[in-house]
Amino acid sequence: MENRFFDLATRQAARLLGKRGRLMALLVKFAGKLGAVKWSDVRLQTFQEKFSVLGRLAKAYALGHYRSVPWRAMLILVAAILYFVNPLDLVPDIVPIAGLTDDFAVLVWVYNTLGDEVGKFLAWEKTRELPL
Q1: Closest listed residue to residue 53, CA positions, set 72, 42, 66
Q2: I want to staple 93 with a disulfide (CB 3.0 to 4.6 A). Which of 66, 78, 87, 104 is the partner?
Q3: 3-state secondary structure the chain
Q4: Residue 130 phi, psi dihedral angles, 5° rounding
Q5: How is the chain split into domains, by residue range?
Q6: What is the pLDDT of residue 52?
Q7: Residues in domain DUF1232 (predicted)?
Q8: pLDDT per residue over 25-70, tens digit each?
Q9: Rounded to 5 degrees, what angle do the CA atoms 103, 80, 124 make?
């Protein structure tokens, strides 16, 4: 992805990945921003679940529950989350409706790029939900 803001987020993600507390703090911000989105206004409800999956994957990784994902994939995922929570990016979030367009595009790109890893994570999640 050719975007200087995403490149900056990738560098920040590399420093953040080994720091559980900071990663968890980032995920709290991510969840808060996702929760503030008026999904009916932007008509992107189908993406809401995809973004939630990305957050759950990052959280499971941060907590050490799920580590079956390549470091590079986590780097891209954390960079996308950083990009999303940062209000100053390619299209600043202050711009009504359009401000989240680039953020959503990055998250969708990451979801699609990590499709195999997301599928493995979802399968792992289902095994954890099975009663013992």
Answers
A1: 66
A2: 87
A3: CCCHHHHHHHHHHHHHCCCHHHHHHHHHHHHHHHHHCCHHHHCCHHHHHHHHHHHHHHHHHHCCCCCCCCHHHHHHHHHHHHHHHCCCCCCCCCCCCHHHHHHHHHHHHHHHHCHHHHHHHHHHHHHHHCCC
A4: -70, 135
A5: 4-129
A6: 93
A7: 74-109
A8: 999 999 998 888 777 765 667 788 899 999 999 999 999 999 999 9
A9: 120
What is the predicted pLDDT for the residue at 97? 59
Tokens of 69: 């994902």
Q: Give the pair of three-digit tokens for residue 92.
A: 């600043």
Look up tokens 């189908």; give the residue: 46
| pLDDT tens, position by position, 74-120 | 999 999 999 888 876 555 555 555 667 778 888 999 999 999 999 99
Task: Give the phi and the psi of residue 69 in degrees, each rounded to 5.
Answer: -135, 135
Q: Which two tokens stand for residue 100?
A: 């989240």
- In sequence order, which residues have a C-beta less than 8 Å from that of residue 60 and are 6 or more positions away? 66, 121, 125
